[in-house]
Specification:
single chain, little secondary structure, 1 helix, 3% helix
Length: 155
């Protein structure tokens, strides 16, 4: 609770259901870690690497994940509501049924990501992020996202 972690190495570790409440983490590595159901509410995860991690059903409400890397991570049913996700790399990750209500997604990279069933995502939010032809949008169609297409709504 309220810990400060700098350049810590959690890669390939298991921390299912862990509570990282209000923590400040910078340059920490969680590559290929198993952390399903983990809570990071109101935490600062600055330039952390979660590539290939399984974080299914984890909670990142009000977390600041700026510049963090979730490349190829399993983020199914994760909660990113009110999160600061500017410049976050979600490329080729699985974000099925994830929640993004009021999250800041400016320049978040969703290229090649699976957003099927993602909830609370607005057209404005997804317009500010990066998508491509490999992105699967919330309604199940292929990207890139086009303004006023309503593809941000789950099918």
């Amino acid at each position: 609770h309220q810990a400060k972690l700098f350049e810590c190495y959690f890669s390939e570790s298991t921390f299912e259901g862990a509570q990282f409440l209000f923590t400040r983490e910078k340059l920490c590595r969680f590559r290929a870690a198993l952390g399903t159901g983990t809570h990071f509410p109101a935490s600062t995860l600055d330039t952390c690497d979660f590539s290939g991690a399984d974080l299914t059903s984890s909670r990142f409400q009000r977390a600041d994940c700026a510049r963090s890397n979730f490349h190829r991570a399993d983020l199914t049913e994760c909660d990113f509501r009110e999160g600061k996700l500017k410049g976050t790399d979600f490329s080729r990750s699985t974000l099925r049924r994830a929640r993004f209500g009021e999250a800041l997604l400016y320049s978040a990279d969703f290229r090649g990501a699976d957003l099927r069933g993602a909830r609370d995502m607005t057209g404005e939010q997804i317009m500010q992020s990066l998508t491509d032809a490999r992105t699967i949008l919330p309604n199940g169609s292929c990207g890139p996202y086009l303004r006023s297409s309503r593809e941000e709504r789950p099918a």
